[in-house]
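Sorry to interrupt, but I need a hand with the structure work. Could you add the entry underneath, on a fresh line?
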Amino acid sequence: MKIGETLIEHASVSVPAAEVVLQGDLSMPSKSKGVVLFAHGSGSSRHSPRNRYVAEALNEHSLGTLLVDLLTAEEEQEDEVTAQLRFDIGLLTRRLVAITDWLASAPQTRGNFIGLFGASTGAAAALMTAAERPGLVKAVVSRGGRPDLAGSTASLVRAPTLLIVGGEDTVVIQMNRDAMALMKCKTELNIVPGATHLFEERGTLAQVATLAADWFTTHLA
């Protein structure tokens, strides 16, 4: 598939993560500048239209992307009823660490610096993964995330981190500021005017994609 002048190779992948195998969609430009792993949260999956929109924008900037389900199909069914697994940050982090290790060694992605894009509770797992794998994770972006759920581990993150929050998402803005106060790495908070938690307002998700592409291009190149 070709996006603009960039040739993109798409593949469905099965990624071993401890006791389970997780399904993902890998897109790699012919000359990649890095690869970004998406960490979904709050009942979302690799089919999230918002994250797929951002992923396509990153592909246009010659960044590879891996959108992967952090829960198995059976676990997703359980979570639809209990809504508990999406808040199990420890579980999400263990799996995200395993996927990060896979990206570092897989033939399709080996040699690329890795970035993490976390949404909602996935942002906490992204920060905890960055803290656990400082040699692999070189940049983090959070969209409407809950980095506060990473707790004191946020202070151990070394990767440059961009926190993006909607201007109307006032509660989450404060949660991001609380997390930012703990962090010692390069950290920026970007508030998108007029946007609510899901960035459904016209043009707001495009701003997220542009901010993320600029951040990853700068720190993964």
